Amino acid sequence: MNDLYAEDLIENYEHPHNKGRLNDANATFHEYNPVCGDDITIYLKIEKGIIKEVKFDGDGCVISIASASLLTEAIKNRKINNVKKMDFEDLKKIIGIDPGPVRIKCATLSLKAVKEAIFLYSHKTSEKETNL
């Protein structure tokens, strides 16, 4: 691993961006990795299809917390349709490393939670539009 990326991950672990709860979130999802104990809840404030605010809360290893910190910065003010399309390759660019097969679940935990929160939000919105 490149030392520059390692330093960035450690910095984001020790001083994570967007850590905390978002009381007026309209999309949330909790994700847990029982293998290593990583535990992340994502909070999104979505307005007109754009992620206006994002926070995360939880505990985990350096890679899971740093990934959540870097991901939340990257998706702020982005359209949910673009965020829904994000994959592991996009996440590797955001975090600056390939965590390898052993740590892939740690790295992708927050992305999975973001996508699930958007999925639930989108279905809740479509139900309101069709009066279900």
Note down, in words, how this protein is organized.
The protein is α+β, with helices and mostly antiparallel strands. The chain has one domain (about 5-120): Sufe protein. Chain: A, CATH 3.90.1010.10. It is built from five helices and three strands. Strands 1-2-3 form a three-stranded antiparallel beta sheet, with helices on one face. The longest helix has 30 residues, at about 100-130. It is globular.
Topology:
Elements: H1 3-14, E1 27-33, E2 38-47, E3 50-59, H2 62-75, H3 80-84, H4 88-95, H5 100-129
Helix pairs in contact: 1-2, 2-5
Features:
132 residues; alpha+beta; Sufe protein. Chain: A; 52% helix; 20% strand
Condensed summary:
This protein has helices at 3-14, 62-75, 80-84, 88-95, 100-129; strands spanning 27-33, 38-47, 50-59.
